[in-house]
Amino acid sequence: xxxxxxxxxxxxxxxRLLRAERDALVPLLRAxxxxxxxxxxxxxxxxxxxxxxxxxxxxxxxxxxxxxxxxYSPECNERDIAERADWPNSRVVDELEHAMTExxxxxxxxxxxxxxxxxxEWVHAGxxxxxxxxxxxxxxxxxxxxxxxxxxxxxxxxxxxxxxxHADIDGRDEPLILGVADGKRPPARYIGDAPTLIRLCTGRxxxxxxxxxxxxxxxxxxxxx
Length: 225
Known about the structure:
The chain is built from seven helices and four strands; from the N terminus they run ααααααβββαβ.
């Protein structure tokens, strides 16, 4: 079950996030030499090419409505990547660009049930920037929408850790509320910038970051399995 706050929910948010990321990421990908695609990412066992093949296939499943049993499992992800092993990098990018363009209306029609896919795609775009040493990893023009989707996803049954967290984010007037309070423990508190919060909640590398965290450990925060 996905918990949706109808007062703040925007059906077009996920598609908007994908299109903004498409416009920023695809030119970067097309300008990169082939050997850059073989650089290792922060995702265990995956190069940049693996990450992009996963992203394009995951979104094409949304576009085409292919959600068989076990979809998005590690085994499914590896099969999807393997199916694209013989493709040139340019074809992977072509598919990704098409999927990022077309998935928005389908995700909107799902009324929140597929929004987590868009968030995951955006995080993986940050993984690519991180691997290539480019600025803007887990930030950029889509950050406001990504934070809203992060809060929404943290209250869904798909989240690995529904730990309640109040995040006081630099430059933001109101705290971002993550997770669901269950009365068993007070909400944890985060103080720091938004990209670092994204890193914490998605299990990404934290080297070089600065933040304060009280009432929880780093290991308790990742929302994705």
